[in-house]
Inverse folding.
């Protein structure tokens, strides 16, 4: 794979004034996006986030100040040449209806004068990368679903291995189920290709999910806070950010964590055929957190919960009285894990590793303690480990 | 409408045609209620050959000229939007002038002959082709142009690689209308000595002898159909993505 290029983007007092407007659309914006990170520009409509994004490829001309890609000012470049080095994805997708999918993906390489074979090979490679059937390459855009079309839109933007990607509400027009899927796919892709991405959205949840960093903007392109998602949720800089992030920011923080990020309870384990006395002894230990023993097999894989009645026998039975209920995985996103617990109307559930062996027990109590604890506020989820859903 | 004096003045339909008619014994003419005379038709079919070729020439040349001018005007108006209302108005005025009046207005300037006819016919096509081309360009989705610009296509590349290909169906639709109306109006070229199938329709004796009119009309109709089929085929071939939509 030829991926590998990425450059930082730096706004230096960048300003955009539209003729006839009393206030600048973007007023002295300074912001630095490190190479290989996703920076989400988020804010209410009319805050100048799209204008700010478009300054990078000069589809909006900069009135004052500058935008630098790597070390180079975009103002020194011929706009069409500059844009061929920058991936561009928009909400309405904008595929060329009269070109096949392969031709659409190969559009920028064609502009750059690549040889036909190389362009064709690159189109095929990208179709595979975005998980589309290679046969779709000969179709026309109208023959694809909206979700498929936007995948092609992303592939087209990536075709010439751009230094920077600009994505303007790329998944905004897709239905919620497919949006989630496309977001996850893009994050997986990004983990592989490590592009510098400027991502515009008005949806704070999408911003939290997609961003390595988030710039919360308000009218005039003023950045109210520029921080990682975790910082933003734990310590909003001011009232505007707090309002924008929403009253449920505690819950939103759970979306940033995996079950493995939190200290789990230890379950008292019981093995089939084990003497019930031993199990009872475990339950009577002073620091026991789970009041019921968990029946596991030889590989320590959970089978079910044992009840008082099960323990009345001499040895642990092979068939537990109570069903296992939900089983969580270490990789699960904390928000989903909580949803699972609530949906099953249970206080706790076993957590297993990728080989389905018991790793601990997660309870509603652990989660609420985590959210309440001041210690949680300093804890930060490293970007690389952000859940991809 | 056919003033024999006028026709004689135009020098085209005069002499021979009338003479031939009056001297000939017209077999079917005497019989009342006989609108079409097969006997005459089979004997005289070759007299339609030359007018048909002339007619084709009038249509093709005036369409080529009309298309070239209207297309150039469209591109100009596409780039400079303020030109759009005046151009629409100007081509509209040309389109509104009654054809015969137009022919005779041009007569003192360009004289008798097919050139005058071609100028007038070309002028008539301007409005239709211009309007449809503008419509086609206006129908190109803004998102497609935005994406094209953002990907680094220059304005010229956007026009030739994106906008015009996408406007092709409307442009060809305009051409199809222009072709049919030009074929019809070209029958009037006879009044200014432009030749064409009009010679076989507006011949003096024809008002009481409709066979020649019927044959000429049939040729006009076939010609219009043939052009339409050709243009439709061109459209299908140049816009394969539109067919794909149905599958």
């Amino acid at each position: 794979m030829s991926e590998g290029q990425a450059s930082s983007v730096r706004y230096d007092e960048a300003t955009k004034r539209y003729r006839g407007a009393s206030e600048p659309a973007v007023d002295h914006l300074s912001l630095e996006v490190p190479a290989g990170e996703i920076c989400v520009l988020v804010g209410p409509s009319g805050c100048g986030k799209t204008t700010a994004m478009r300054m990078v490829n000069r589809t909006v001309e900069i009135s004052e100040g500058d935008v630098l890609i790597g070390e180079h000012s975009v103002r020194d470049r011929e706009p069409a040449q500059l844009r061929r080095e920058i991936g561009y994805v928009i909400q309405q997708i904008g595929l060329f209806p009269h070109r096949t999918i392969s031709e659409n993906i190969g559009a920028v390489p064609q502009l750059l004068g690549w040889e036909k074979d190389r362009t064709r090979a690159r189109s095929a490679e990208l179709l595979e990368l975005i998980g589309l059937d290679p046969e779709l390459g000969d179709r026309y855009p109208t023959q694809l679903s909206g979700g498929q079309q936007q995948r092609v839109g992303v592939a087209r933007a990536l075709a010439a291995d751009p230094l920077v990607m600009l994505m303007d509400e790329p998944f905004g027009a897709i239905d919620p189920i497919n949006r989630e899927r496309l977001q996850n796919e893009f994050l997986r892709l990004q983990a592989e290709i490590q592009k510098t991405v400027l991502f515009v959205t008005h949806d704070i949840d999408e911003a939290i999910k997609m961003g390595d960093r988030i710039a919360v903007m308000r009218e005039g392109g003023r950045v109210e806070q520029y921080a990682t998602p975790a910082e933003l949720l734990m310590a909003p800089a001011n009232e505007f950010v707090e309002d924008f992030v929403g009253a449920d920011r505690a819950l939103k923080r759970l979306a940033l964590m995996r079950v493995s990020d939190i200290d789990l309870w230890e379950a008292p384990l019981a093995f089939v055929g084990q003497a019930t006395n031993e199990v009872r002894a475990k339950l009577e230990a002073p620091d026991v957190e789970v009041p019921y023993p968990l029946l596991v097999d030889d590989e320590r894989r959970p089978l079910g919960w044992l009840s008082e009645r099960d323990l009345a026998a001499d040895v642990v039975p092979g068939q537990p009285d109570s069903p296992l209920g939900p089983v969580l995985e270490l990789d699960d996103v904390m928000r989903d894990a909580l949803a699972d617990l609530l949906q099953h109307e249970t206080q706790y559930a076993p957590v297993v590793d990728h080989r389905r062996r018991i790793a601990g027990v997660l309870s509603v109590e652990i989660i609420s303690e985590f959210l309440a604890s001041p210690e949680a506020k300093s804890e930060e989820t490293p970007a690389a480990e952000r859940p991809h859903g | 409408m056919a003033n024999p004096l006028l026709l004689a003045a135009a020098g085209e339909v005069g002499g021979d045609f009338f003479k031939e008619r009056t001297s000939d014994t017209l077999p079917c003419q005497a019989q009342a209620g006989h609108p079409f005379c097969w006997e005459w038709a089979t004997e005289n079919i070759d007299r339609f050959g030359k007018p048909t070729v002339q007619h084709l020439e009038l249509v093709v040349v005036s369409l080529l000229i009309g298309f070239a001018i209207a297309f150039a005007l469209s591109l100009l108006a596409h780039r400079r939007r303020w030109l759009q209302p005046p151009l629409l108005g100007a081509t509209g005025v040309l389109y509104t002038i009654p054809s015969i009046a137009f022919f005779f207005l041009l007569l003192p300037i360009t004289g008798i002959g097919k050139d005058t006819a071609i100028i007038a016919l070309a002028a008539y096509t301007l409005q239709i082709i211009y309007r449809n081309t503008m419509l086609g360009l206006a129908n190109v989705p803004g998102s497609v142009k935005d994406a094209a610009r953002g990907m680094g296509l220059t304005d010229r590349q956007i026009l030739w690689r994106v906008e015009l290909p996408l406007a092709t169906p409307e442009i060809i639709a305009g051409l199809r209308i222009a072709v049919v109306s030009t074929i019809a109006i070209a029958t009037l070229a006879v009044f200014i000595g432009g030749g064409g199938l009009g010679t076989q329709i507006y011949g003096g004796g024809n008002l009481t002898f409709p066979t020649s009119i019927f044959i000429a009309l049939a040729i006009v109709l076939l010609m219009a159909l043939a052009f339409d089929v050709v243009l439709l085929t061109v459209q299908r071939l140049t816009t394969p993505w539109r067919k794909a939509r149905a599958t």
